[in-house]
Each structure stands twice: as C-alpha cells, then as structure tokens.
Amino acid sequence: RNMSSAGPEGRKKMRECEGLIDSLVYYIQGAIADHEPNDKATENCVCILHNLSYQLEIELPESYAQSIYMQRRNISNNDKTPGCFGTRSRKVKEKQQDTPLPEEKSNPKGVESLWHSTLIRIYLSLIAKSTRNYTQEASLGALQNLTAGTGPMPLAVARTVVQKANGLPGIRAMLHVSHPAVKKTAVSLLRNLSRNTSLQNDIAREVLPDLVSILPESVPGCDIACETTASICYTLFNLTQSSSHNARLLLSAHGLPKVIAISMNDSNMFSKASRAASVLLYSLWSHTDLHSAYKK
Fold first, then answer.
1. Is the CA virtual torsion 47, 51, 52, 53 positive or negative?
2. Which residue stretches belong to region Disordered (predicted)?
C-alpha cells in the first residue's frame, strides 16, 4: 500500500508485476463472497488498486493503449488519429465521444483488470456494503481516477457505473455520511460522471436533489468542506448547463438561495466555493425561460 503511492515509476512497476493486480482482485472478491467487506486486508487491497488507477489513462504505454482502443469507425486514412491518452483538447474529446467503446475481455489479466466492469462492480459493492471509511473512500477514489480522463476508457467506466451497474444509489448514499473525506470523494466522482452529456439526465434525476440538500447555507469554514462545496457547484453546473429541465429541478429543490448565499462570500480564503457558485449562477441565468421563476 505504501509502495503503490511512491509515484509514476512505482505505479508502473507494480502494474507490470505479473499476478499482483489479479491477486488483489481475487482477495477482495473472496472477502465480499464471505461477507467480510470490513477487514483490514480488504482495505489495503482497495487502497493499492486506488493508487494504481491514478493517472492510468495517461501512464499506460501508447502501444498498449492503441492495441486496446484502435477499434475505429471508418476513420479516413487522411485523418490524423490522435492518441487516446493524455490529451485534453476539445476536438479530440468530440472525436473520442464518437468512438465506439472498447470491447471488454471476458478474462482480463493484470492492468486490464483495473478498468474492467468486474472491478467496477466490486468497488460499487464495497461502497454499498463496507462501513470502513478508508475502504469506502478508496473505492470511490478508484472510480474517480478511472473517470477523470476524456478517452474511451473513462467514458466506458462512467457508462458502466451509471447505466450498466446501477451505481448511483450507492454513490448517493455516500453524500450523506458524516466522514468529510468520503463525502468529498463521492462528490468528485459525480463531478467526473456529470461531464458525460449522455449520462447527465440520469445523474440529475437520481442525485441532483441530494446534491442541493448537502449544499451549505453559506461558505463553510474549513478547507475540505469548501472544496466539497465548490465540487457540488461545478457538478450542478454540468447537469444544468444544457438542460432547462435540470435547472428547474435545482430550483424546485430550493437550491437557488443557497447558491446565491455561497456566491456572495468574497473572503479570499473561501473564494474557490464562491467562484464556483458564481459560475453556476451565471449558467442558470442563461435559461431565459426560467427568469420569471428565478425572480420569484
């Protein structure tokens, strides 16, 4: 667990170590099957996998990435195909959104297991069944890492979490735990998921009222709560930016007074949350059909 947080070279060596990732997954599967999701060894295994999934999209070798993801739909030979990993441009993002998702191997080995639906379902199971905060946080954090990029892999993981594995109810429950780091990581995961336009309506329907309910009445007084508040605002921004229906959902959940109060705090220490709330307000105002409702 300590070695897995030693940096890029350490992660690379551990990902390449034959049988290591498979053994960690095997152990966790056994713990879940034996109804032992709270033991310390399971926590350690999940924390290692969490660390090994960090920056996975960027750190995989290009040759390996291309061998997995080059299932393209009639892309012209004249069209320069961008690399799937490590790029953040808008054009590439649009191209990758139009790329078919990679087909899963039925029996993944090693690093392939890190984004396979089997492990995604394991994380969601631990989120739902474990009462150990570090295990919950590491499971949420691994999913956050896997959904952080813009290529086919993060998109496939996001769709698996939201649509195939019905993961939103378990994530939603984590919004209401008392442990601040678990709550912060759950919100960060939802922020990543909410970037996918095809998933936004599902996410809004399932968790938007909960996100509004955990918004504070004003800017909170500690760093982690302030970061969580900013993340909530950016998640709500993603969900409402292109949807008047979702903006109305925020309004009916009594979110507007909270967002206004957070935006009006001009203390430098908490400007991150206030800035995020202001961005959200600006976006909400773009829905002109809601102006009269806002004014009321």
1. positive
2. 79-109
Q: What is the pLDDT of residues 19-62, one digit of tens each?
A: 999 999 999 999 999 999 999 999 999 999 999 999 998 887 66
Q: Are 105 and 114 in contact (CB under 8 A)?
A: no
DSSP-assigned states of every residue in 41-104: HHHHHHHHHHHHTTTHHHHS-HHHHHHHH---SS--TTSPPPPSSS---HHHHHHHHTSPPPPP
What CATH number should be reported for the domain whose range is 1-64+104-178? 1.25.10
Identity of residue 211: L
pTM metric for this prediction: 0.87
Distance (Å) of CA 90 to CA 82, 95, 151: 12, 9, 12
Domain borders along the chain are 1-64+104-178, 196-295
Amino acid at 82: P
Exposed, middle or buried, 205 (CB in 10 Å: 0-12/13-18/19+)?
Answer: middle
